[in-house]
Amino acid sequence: MTKRATMNADSSSPSGAEDGPEAFVSRLGAELESSDVRPIVFVLGSGLSNAIIPGVGRMTTAGMDFLGRRSPDAVLRIVEEFADAGTDPNTAALRYERVLSSLDSYVGPEYVKGFVQELTLSAYAAVSPGAHGVLAGRRRRYDPLEIAACGILENDIEGWQLPRGIRALGVLAAQHPERFSRAITTNFDPLLEIAVRRAHRASLTVSFDKDGSLHPLAPSPVFAVGHLHGYWDGGTYTLHTGRRLKQPRPQLVGSLKDLMSGALVVVMGYGGWNDVFSALRG
Questions:
Q1: What confidence score (pLDDT) does residue 215 get?
Q2: How many CB atoms lie within 10 A of CB 141?
Q3: How far apart are CA 213 and CA 104, in angstroms?
Q4: Any alpha helices (H) in 122-209, and if so which ranges?
Q5: What is the pLDDT of residue 15?
Q6: What would the DSSP string read from start to end of 71-137?
Q7: Is the pLDDT score of 95 beyond 70?
Q8: Cα separations (Å) of 176 from 13, 52, 126, 248?
Q9: Handedness of CA 262, 46, 220, 215 (dihedral sign)
Q10: Domain boundaries of the chain, sorted by first residue
Q11: pLDDT score, position 18
């Protein structure tokens, strides 16, 4: 059995008691002061970044707008399909999946990649001449960028706007490398890596759209981030639909168990997608 403690950002205990952010900060501080130097693993969801990068609701709206340029009838069918669905969070997730699946059908995976990249760039404004050149070379808003072009933008680290929580995590990772060396996230964006690098520590990105191993995230001087739903640069597909999120990934599940064994797992902004991580929790 894998032994680990789990701490939610709004909780001070593994049981999930609602004691608020002060208790969370106190618990984390006590952990850092403890003589027990077990690793601390972050698990991050979109709730930590959606004040800057669109979350499910705004991605759905933007996707409907993009889809409407290609097929107004497809948008009308989605509106009619969910007309009586109400505001239940599960409905919002289903609507999001439906819109992204339709985009994949009507514009293809390359433009879905460009769509995800454009929304990720909501947190970015070019500073370096090279980054300005990359953005100037895009003819249309959702034209996909190549991996090398995304790398140029990522290296322009002062151009990225970081939410306070992610910025703080970057500082923690830089100041306590013996405790913070790994994180996993369902987000597509590079904000955590940017935060770590801005705090003067190197970072490594490992992304997955199928099965795979998290062994590259083994403890090292480099802070490693595993993106379970893919990554914005297009090196892997980004996973949006239930069919893709629920695909069997036994190797990844096994390496997640290894990663969390003996660690304090800190869950922040994760809404509980029906995916490889929620299956592990169950």
A1: 67
A2: 10
A3: 27
A4: 129-136, 147-155, 164-175, 191-198
A5: 41
A6: -HHHHHHHHHHTTT-TT-HHHHHHHHHHHHHHHHHHH-HHHHHHHHHHHHGGGB---SHHHHHHHHT
A7: yes
A8: 22, 27, 30, 35
A9: positive
A10: 5-50+162-281, 56-158
A11: 55
